[in-house]
Amino acid sequence: MKDLFGKALLDYHSGNYTEDLITSTNISDEDVLPLPYLFRGYSEMPKLEQKALQLAKGSVLDVGCGTGSHSLHLQNKGFEVKAIDVSEGSIEVCKQRGVTNVELKALLDEIETIDTILVLMNGTGIFQTLENTPNYLKHLKSLLKPNGQILIDSSDIKYMYEDDDGPDNYRGWQDMNADYYGELDYYLNYKGQKEVPMKWLYLDFNTLKTACNSVGLQCELILEGEHYDYLARIYN
């Protein structure tokens, strides 16, 4: 990986902001991801993210922390927060912005037990595929302290296939040979450079709940957004 995402964040934070990130998927055209949006404060966050931060309790793990906006908000409120990301640029930006406990680390490498785990900004994306989802959920479960919780958001992107045959051919979560309509190839461009394509997963709530139940976790719908998105709470 070239860490174009991290380079873009560092450019913006260091005053070298000249252009935005360009994203696309195998089912959607190019779209602009404005860098200022990634540095937003609490008042500028979507209601789903605000609700997740309101529900945080005890020690907090911010998975895929990005610029550290969620971590900073909770840290400023007195929470004990640990932020992790696989982007070196993101980690450097978090440090420069004042996140006190931040590590370059993948979720599956984390071993510390936590009260609240935040997996936001389409958090299910890090699972990559439906087949991988139970393994990630098992690991998240292993990180939870007694009465701990995972706050995660995603979207049901079935609406993107309204003119196709896509999700109508989906045969259900139990069939791992079926292509789930939320599994996408994600492309990122920045300043003329292309990042290595990533697998990214959008999970509808019922599929997430089924996956959670399969590994002994409970899953409840907390809040629905304005565009097929939702916030869920997962717990033992």
Determine the fraction of residues in helical runs and give it as a percent range: 10-25%
The helix-and-strand class reads alpha/beta
Number of helices: 6
Based on Cα principal axes, name the global outline. Answer: globular
Show unreliable segments. Answer: 170-176
Q: Which percent range describes the beta-strand content? A: 25-35%
Taking all Cα atoms into account, the compactness measure Rg is 17 Å
Main sheet overview: 7 strands, mixed
Mean pLDDT: 94
Question: What is the oligomeric state here?
Answer: single chain
The secondary-structure element order is HEEHEHEHEEHEEEEHEE
What does this structure look like?
The model is unreliable at 170-176 (pLDDT under 50). With 236 residues, the protein is an alpha/beta fold. The longest helix is centred in the middle third of the chain and has 11 residues, at 133-143. It is built from six helices and twelve strands. The protein has helices spanning 4-13, 47-55, 69-76, 88-97, 133-143, 205-214, and strands at residues 21-25, 28-33, 60-63, 81-85, 102-104, 114-119, 144-155, 183-190, 193-194, 198-201, 218-224, 229-235. Strands 5-4-3-6-7-12-11 form a seven-stranded mixed sheet, with helices on both faces.
List its traits.
alpha/beta, 5-stranded antiparallel beta sheet, 236 residues, 12 strands, 6 helices, 7-stranded mixed beta sheet
Task: Please provide a brief summary of the model.
The chain is built from six helices and twelve strands.
